[in-house]
C-alpha cells in the first residue's frame, strides 16, 4: 500500500510529467485564445520546425550528462554545412543520404578535436569549446572562404517535401508528417538505447557523477570523452543539413547566430531536466523541453501579441514554466528528506 | 597544524604568482603591439581611446565575475544595463528639458498617451538643479539595476532555478520591457553635464576610467574584506558546506546578483554618456566577451575561485590585443581564430600551472608530516 | 613554478609568431592617395558589392585608395570601436553603414576633430557627418513596395509587414510609408496586425509567416518584407503550404537570395538599390569633398543620377530602385 503510494508520488513528481502537464496547460490556454493552435496541422508543423533544435539538443544533453558543456556545436554545424554542400556541388554528385553522412562525419571529426583537448589537458569544457568555436568558424571564413549559397541542389528541397504519411483534414488542408521529424525520433531512440543499454552510455553517466570514480570503476575515459564530443559533432552536422533542407540556402552566420540558437538549445535541454552539473538527464525530457520552447515562441502571433511585447511574454513564460518546475523539484527534495528521516 | 598553515601560505603565494603572470602577459602584449605598430598604437589618440573603451566592458566583466565566483552566471547583464539606461534616460530627459523646451514633443516618442504625459508632467517637482538631476539619474540607473539583479537573485536563490536559465528568462524579460517602453526607438539628446560622465576628463584621466578604477577598488574590498565577499566564495566552492557552516546561502546569492545588477546600471550610465544615446541592443556583443574575459582571468567555471586582478588584467589584455588587431587590419575571421587559440593556450598554461602547484602542495604536506 | 614559466615562455613564443604570420599580409599603398574606409554593418555580400563599386570608382577616378572593415556581428559598439581604430590609423575619410546612427555620433565627432571626414549610407538621422548617401528616400521605397504588393494581390485583401528589428530606423520608416500609401491609394486593402519582427533571419521570417497563415487564414493575401532575408523566408512558408496563387510576397531582397522563390512563384517582386552604383557615387562625391570642391544640389553624379540634397542627405534619382522579378534576376550579380 505504502509502496504503491510512493510509486504514484514518484511518477507525479517526475520531471517529464510536470513538464508535460505544463505543456498541456499552455496548449489549452493558447487554444482557447485561438483554436488554430491545437490543430494537427499546427502540431505537425511545430514538430517539423523544431526538429533541427531537437537534433542539436540531443547532443547537448549527452555532453551535459557527462557534466560538460559544448558551445561550439553551432560553429561545427556551420562548418559542416558549408563544406558538405560546397563539396557535393563541386563533385557534381551526391544525394541527400550522402549529404547527411558527410556532414555528420565532418562534424564528428571536429568534435573529436574538442574531446581530445578536454581529455588531454583536463581543461574546463566551456573554455575548450568557446575557443574551438571561434577557431572553427574563423577558419571557415578566412581560409575556406565559404560564401553564401542561395541556390542548392534539388535533392535538399525534395527531401523537405517528403512525408512519412499524409492525410486531409476536415477543412481540406493536406497535412504531412515530415521525414525531418522521423529523423529526430530515430535519433532520439538511438540516443536512448545508447544511454540505457551500452557500456558507453553508463560511462557517460558515470563521468557526469565523478570522473575519478568512473576511472576507478574501469571506464575508458579517453574513449568515452571522444565519443561524447564526436557525437554532438555528428548530430550538429546532421542538423546543419536539415537546415539546408528546410531553408534551401547555406549561410555562414544564420546558424551561427549564437545568442539565439545556442541559448535556445541549452535552455531546452536544461528545461528538460538535464542537470548542468551532470549525471542526470533523459531523452524524453529533452524533447519535451525543445517542444515547450517552440510552443512558446510559435504561438505569439496566434495569440495576437504585439511585436514589442514579444520578449516580455517569452521571458515571462520561460521564467514561469522553469520556475514551477524548479520549485517542484526543490519540494521533492524536501519530500525525500522527510521519507528518509 | 603546521601543515595547514603552510597550505594557506601556499595558496596566497599561488594567487600572487598568478597576478604576476597576468601582469607580465599584459606588459608583454602591450610591448608587442607597441613594437609592431609604434606610430599608430602608441599615438596619444589610441591610448586615450583605449582608456575610453575599456571601462564599460570592464565593469560588465567585473559584474559577471562576481556571479561566476558564486557558481552562477548572469546572461541578463547587458539587458539589465539597457533597461536601467532607458528608464534613467527618461528621467534625465524629462527633468533636464523641463521649462526650457517643448516637453510634449520630446516625450511623444516615449509615451503615446497624452493624458499620462501631462499628468506626469504636472506632478514633477520644479527647481531641481542640473547636479541634482544628474544625481537622481544616477540613482535611478543604479536602483533599476539593483532591482533587476534582485529578481535574478530571487529566482536563483528562492525559486531554485539554475542561474543560466533564470537569467536567460530575465534577459528576454528586461529586453522586452525596454522594447515596450521605447518601441525600439533610441533615446538621445542628453545634457552636456551628463555627457561629461562618459567623455569628460579630470586631470587628463577620462572620467569613465576613474569610475572603473573606483568600481574595481570597491569590488576588490567587498570580495576580500567583507563577510559577504567570503560568503560568495564559500557558496561558489561548495553550497552545501557553506550552508552547514551556518551561512545563509540564499541571502548571499540575492546580494550577489543585486550587486551585479548595480554594476550593470553603472556600466549603462557610462555607455549612455559615451554615445549620447541609449537603445535596445546596445552592447550585445559584450555578453559572451565578458564571460570569456572572466574565464581567461582565472575564475573557475564552477565557481569558488578567482580574483579581480586576473579579470581586470584580462580585460586590459583583450582590449589591447583587439585594438592592435584592428590597427594592423586583420580580418575579423583571422582575429577569431587567434582569439580561440589564445584562449585555449592560456587555459592550458593556467591549468598546468595549478596542477604543478597542487603537486608541490602535496609534497609539502608529506614533508611536514 | 618552473613549469609555469616554461609554459609562459611557450605562449610568448607562440603569440608573436601568430601575430607576425598574419601581420605580414599588411600592404601599404602610395602615400599621396586619399585613404577612404568603408565600414559595413557586418560581413555581407551587399557591402562587398558596395565595396566593389568603390574600388571601381577608385580605379577609374584615381587619387583614392579604398579599404573595407566590417564588424563580425551587426553591433553598434563594435562599429564605434572600428571607427575609433580608423581615427588612430589616421585615414582621410570614413563611410559607415551604421547599425545604429545615434551610437556613432561621438565617434564621428572625434573623427571630425582629428580632421577625418565622415560619411554614412542608409542613415538619414546622422548629424556629425559631411553627407549621408541614400539611393532614394525611404518614403519612395516604401511606396514602391506597396505598389508592387497591391498589383500582385489585385488591390484587395489583408496584408502584414515585416521589419528586421524594431530598432531598425529605416525598416520602420519603409513600413510607415507602406501603410500610409496603402491608406491613401488602396482602400480595399487592410493591415492585419502591427509589424512583425524577423530578426533579419530567414528561419524566423519563415516560422512567423507560417503562424500568420494559420492565424489569419484566407484573409492573408500579402506579405511585405523589409530585411533581405524576409521575402525568402516568407516565400518558403507560402510555397510549403502551396499558396503561391493566394498570397503574394514582395519586399526588399537581393536577386540571389530571392531567386528560388521568384522561380517557384512564391515571391512576386523584390526591390533593392544597386549597391555598386551607390559605392561608386559615394566615392565620386567624397573625392570632390576631399579635394575641397563643393557638391551642389542637382549635380549629375555617376552612379547616383541627378542628386537631391536635403540638409546633409544626398538622395539619388528616384530611378535608383531596382525591381527584380523572375524574368530579370539572373542579370544581377548580387
What is the CATH top level name of the largest domain in chain C? Alpha Beta
Strand content of chain B: under 5%
Poorly predicted regions of chain B are 1-10, 99-118, 358-369
Strand percentage of chain C: 15-25%
Rounded to an integer, what's the Rg of chain C over CA atoms? 23 Å
* CATH architecture label of the largest domain in chain C: 3-Layer(aba) Sandwich
Overall pLDDT metric of chain C? 84
Number of helices of chain C: 10
| Strand arrangement, major sheet of chain B | 1-4
Summarize the structure.
The complex is a heterotrimer of chains A (341), B (369) and C (334). Chain B is an all-alpha fold and 369 residues long.
Give a quick set of tags describing it:
heterotrimer; A: 341 residues; mainly alpha; 2 domains; two-stranded antiparallel ribbon; 74% helix; C: 334 residues; alpha/beta; Rossmann fold; seven-stranded mixed sheet; 10 helices; 45% helix; elongated
Secondary structure layout:
The complex is a heterotrimer of chains A (341), B (369) and C (334).
Chain A: H1 2-13, H2 15-33, H3 40-49, H4 51-65, H5 73-91, H6 96-121, H7 125-144, H8 154-161, E1 163-168, E2 174-178, H9 179-197, H10 199-209, H11 211-216, H12 221-247, H13 258-271, H14 283-297, H15 310-340
Antiparallel strand pairs in A: 1-2
Chain B: H1 2-36, H2 38-41, H3 44-69, H4 77-96, H5 103-108, H6 114-123, H7 130-157, H8 163-182, E1 187-188, H9 192-199, E2 201-202, E3 205-206, H10 207-225, H11 227-237, H12 239-244, H13 249-275, E4 277-278, H14 286-296, H15 308-328, H16 332-368
Antiparallel strand pairs in B: 1-4, 2-3
Chain C: H1 2-23, E1 34-39, H2 45-61, E2 64-69, H3 76-89, E3 93-96, H4 101-113, E4 117-121, E5 131-134, H5 138-152, E6 157-163, H6 169-185, E7 189-191, E8 196-197, H7 202-216, E9 220-225, H8 230-240, E10 248-252, H9 255-264, E11 269-273, H10 275-290, E12 300-301, E13 305-306, E14 308-310, E15 313-315, E16 321-324
Parallel strand pairs in C: 1-2, 1-3, 3-4, 4-5, 5-15, 6-7, 6-8, 6-9, 9-10, 10-11
Antiparallel strand pairs in C: 11-16, 12-13, 14-15
Helix pairs in contact in C: 2-10, 3-4, 5-6, 7-8, 8-9
Amino acid at each position: 500500500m505504502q509502496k504503491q503510494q510512493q510509486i504514484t508520488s514518484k511518477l507525479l513528481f517526475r520531471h517529464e510529467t510536470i513538464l508535460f502537464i505544463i505543456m498541456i496547460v499552455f496548449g489549452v490556454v493558447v487554444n482557447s485564445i485561438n483554436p488554430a493552435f491545437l490543430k494537427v496541422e499546427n502540431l505537425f508543423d511545430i514538430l517539423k520546425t523544431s526538429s533541427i533544435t531537437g537534433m542539436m539538443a540531443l547532443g547537448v544533453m549527452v555532453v551535459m550528462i557527462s557534466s560538460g558543456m559544448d558551445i561550439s556545436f553551432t560553429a561545427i554545424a556551420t562548418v559542416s554545412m558549408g563544406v558538405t554542400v560546397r563539396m557535393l556541388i563541386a563533385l557534381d554528385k551526391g544525394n541527400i543520404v550522402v549529404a547527411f553522412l558527410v556532414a555528420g562525419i565532418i562534424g564528428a571529426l571536429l568534435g573529436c578535436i574538442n574531446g581530445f583537448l578536454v581529455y588531454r589537458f583536463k581543461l574546463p569544457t566551456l573554455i575548450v569549446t568557446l575557443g574551438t568555436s571561434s577557431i572553427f568558424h574563423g577558419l571557415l571564413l578566412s581560409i575556406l572562404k565559404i560564401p553564401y549559397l542561395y541556390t542548392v541542389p534539388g535533392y535538399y528541397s525534395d527531401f523537405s517535401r517528403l512525408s512519412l504519411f499524409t492525410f486531409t483534414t476536415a477543412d481540406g488542408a493536406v497535412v504531412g508528417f515530415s521525414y525531418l521529424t522521423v529523423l529526430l525520433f530515430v535519433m532520439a531512440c538511438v540516443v536512448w538505447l545508447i544511454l540505457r543499454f551500452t557500456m558507453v552510455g553508463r560511462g557517460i553517466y558515470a563521468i557526469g557523477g565523478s570522473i575519478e570514480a568512473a576511472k576507478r570503476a574501469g571506464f575508458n575515459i579517453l574513449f568515452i570523452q571522444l565519443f561524447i564530443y564526436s557525437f554532438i559533432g555528428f548530430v550538429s552536422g546532421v542538423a546543419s543539413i536539415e537546415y539546408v533542407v528546410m531553408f534551401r540556402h547555406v549561410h555562414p552566420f544564420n546558424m551561427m547566430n549564437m545568442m539565439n540558437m545556442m541559448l535556445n538549445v541549452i535552455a531546452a535541454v536544461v528545461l528538460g531536466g538535464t542537470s548542468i552539473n551532470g549525471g542526470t538527464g533523459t531523452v524524453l525530457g529533452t524533447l519535451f523541453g525543445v517542444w515547450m520552447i517552440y510552443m512558446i515562441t510559435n504561438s505569439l502571433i496566434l495569440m495576437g501579441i504585439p511585436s514589442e511585447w514579444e520578449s516580455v511574454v517569452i521571458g515571462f513564460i520561460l521564467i514561469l514554466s522553469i520556475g514551477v518546475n524548479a520549485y517542484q523539484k526543490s519540494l521533492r527534495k524536501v519530500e525525500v528528506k522527510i521519507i528518509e528521516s | 597544524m603546521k601543515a595547514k598553515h603552510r597550505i594557506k601560505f601556499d595558496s596566497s603565494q599561488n594567487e600572487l604568482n598568478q597576478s604576476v603572470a597576468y601582469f607580465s602577459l599584459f606588459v608583454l602584449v602591450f610591448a608587442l603591439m607597441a613594437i609592431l605598430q609604434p606610430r599608430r598604437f602608441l599615438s596619444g589618440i589610441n591610448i586615450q581611446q583605449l582608456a575610453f573603451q575599456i571601462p564599460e566592458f570592464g565593469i560588465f566583466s567585473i559584474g559577471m565575475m562576481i556571479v561566476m565566483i558564486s557558481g552562477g552566471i548572469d546572461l541578463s547583464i547587458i539587458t539589465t544595463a539597457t533597461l536601467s539606461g532607458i528608464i534613467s534616460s527618461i528621467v534625465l530627459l524629462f527633468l533636464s528639458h523641463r521649462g526650457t523646451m517643448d516637453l510634449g514633443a520630446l516625450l511623444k516618442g516615449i509615451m503615446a498617451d497624452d493624458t499620462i504625459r501631462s499628468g506626469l508632467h504636472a506632478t514633477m517637482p520644479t527647481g531641481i538643479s542640473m547636479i541634482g538631476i544628474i544625481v537622481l539619474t544616477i540613482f535611478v540607473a543604479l536602483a533599476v539595476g539593483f532591482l533587476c539583479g534582485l529578481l535574478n537573485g530571487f529566482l536563483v536563490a528562492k525559486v531554485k532555478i539554475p542561474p543560466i536559465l533564470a537569467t536567460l528568462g530575465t534577459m528576454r524579460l528586461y529586453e522586452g520591457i525596454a522594447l515596450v517602453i521605447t518601441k525600439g526607438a533610441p533615446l538621445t539628446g542628453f545634457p552636456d553635464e551628463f555627457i561629461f560622465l562618459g567623455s569628460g576628463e579630470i586631470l587628463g584621466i577620462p572620467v569613465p576610467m576613474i569610475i572603473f578604477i573606483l568600481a574595481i577598488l570597491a569590488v576588490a574590498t567587498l570580495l576580500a574584506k567583507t563577510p559577504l565577499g567570503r560568503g560568495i566564495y564559500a557558496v561558489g566552492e561548495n553550497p552545501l558546506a557553506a550552508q552547514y557552516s551556518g551561512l545563509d546561502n540564499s541571502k548571499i546569492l540575492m546580494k550577489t546578483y543585486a550587486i551585479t545588477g548595480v554594476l550593470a546600471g553603472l556600466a549603462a550610465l557610462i555607455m549612455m554618456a559615451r554615445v549620447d544615446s541609449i537603445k535596445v541592443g546596445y552592447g550585445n556583443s559584450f555578453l559572451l566577451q565578458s564571460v570569456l574575459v572572466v574565464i581567461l582571468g582565472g575564475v573557475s567555471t564552477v565557481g569558488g575561485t578567482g580574483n579581480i586582478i586576473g579579470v581586470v588584467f584580462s580585460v586590459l589584455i583583450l582590449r589591447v590585443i583587439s585594438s592592435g588587431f584592428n590597427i594592423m587590419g586583420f580580418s575579423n575571421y583571422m582575429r577569431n581564430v587567434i582569439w580561440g587559440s589564445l584562449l585555449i593556450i592560456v587555459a592550458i598554461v593556467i591549468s598546468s600551472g595549478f596542477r604543478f602547484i597542487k603537486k608541490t602542495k602535496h609534497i609539502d604536506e608529506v614533508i611536514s608530516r | 613554478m618552473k613549469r609555469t614559466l616554461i609554459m609562459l615562455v611557450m605562449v610568448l613564443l607562440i603569440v608573436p609568431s601568430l601575430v607576425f604570420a598574419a601581420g605580414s599580409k599588411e600592404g601599404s599603398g602610395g602615400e599621396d592617395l586619399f585613404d577612404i574606409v568603408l565600414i559595413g554593418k557586418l560581413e555581407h555580400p551587399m557591402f562587398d558589392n558596395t565595396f566593389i563599386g568603390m574600388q571601381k570608382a577608385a580605379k577609374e577616378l584615381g587619387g583614392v585608395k579604398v579599404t573595407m572593415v566590417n564588424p563580425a556581428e551587426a553591433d553598434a559598439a563594435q562599429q564605434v570601436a572600428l571607427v575609433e581604430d580608423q581615427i588612430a590609423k589616421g585615414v582621410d575619410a570614413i563611410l559607415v553603414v551604421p547599425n545604429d546612427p545615434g551610437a556613432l555620433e561621438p565617434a564621428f565627432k572625434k573623427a571630425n576633430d582629428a580632421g577625418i571626414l565622415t560619411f554614412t549610407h542608409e542613415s538619414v538621422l546622422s548629424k556629425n557627418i559631411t553627407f549621408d548617401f541614400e539611393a532614394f528616400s525611404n518614403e519612395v521605397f516604401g511606396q514602391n513596395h506597396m505598389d508592387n504588393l497591391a498589383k500582385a494581390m489585385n488591390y484587395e485583401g489583408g496584408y502584414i509587414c515585416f521589419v528586421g528589428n524594431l530598432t531598425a530606423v529605416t525598416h520602420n520608416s519603409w513600413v510607415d510609408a507602406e501603410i500610409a500609401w496603402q491608406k491613401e491609394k488602396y482602400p480595399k486593402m487592410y493591415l492585419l496586425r502591427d509589424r512583425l519582427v524577423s530578426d533579419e533571419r530567414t528561419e524566423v521570417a519563415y516560422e512567423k509567416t507560417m503562424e500568420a497563415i494559420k492565424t489569419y487564414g484566407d484573409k492573408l493575401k500579402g506579405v511585405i518584407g523589409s530585411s533581405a532575408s524576409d521575402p525568402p523566408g516568407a516565400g518558403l512558408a507560402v510555397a510549403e503550404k502551396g499558396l503561391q496563387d493566394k498570397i503574394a510576397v514582395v519586399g526588399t531582397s537581393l536577386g540571389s537570395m530571392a531567386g528560388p522563390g521568384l522561380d517557384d512563384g512564391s515571391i512576386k517582386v523584390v526591390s533593392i538599390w544597386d549597391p555598386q552604383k551607390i559605392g561608386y557615387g559615394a566615392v565620386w562625391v567624397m573625392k570632390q569633398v576631399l579635394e575641397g570642391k563643393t557638391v551642389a544640389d542637382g549635380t549629375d553624379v555617376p552612379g547616383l543620377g541627378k542628386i537631391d540634397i536635403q540638409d546633409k542627405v544626398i538622395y539619388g534619382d528616384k530611378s535608383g530602385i531596382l525591381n527584380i522579378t523572375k524574368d530579370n534576376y539572373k542579370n544581377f550579380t548580387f
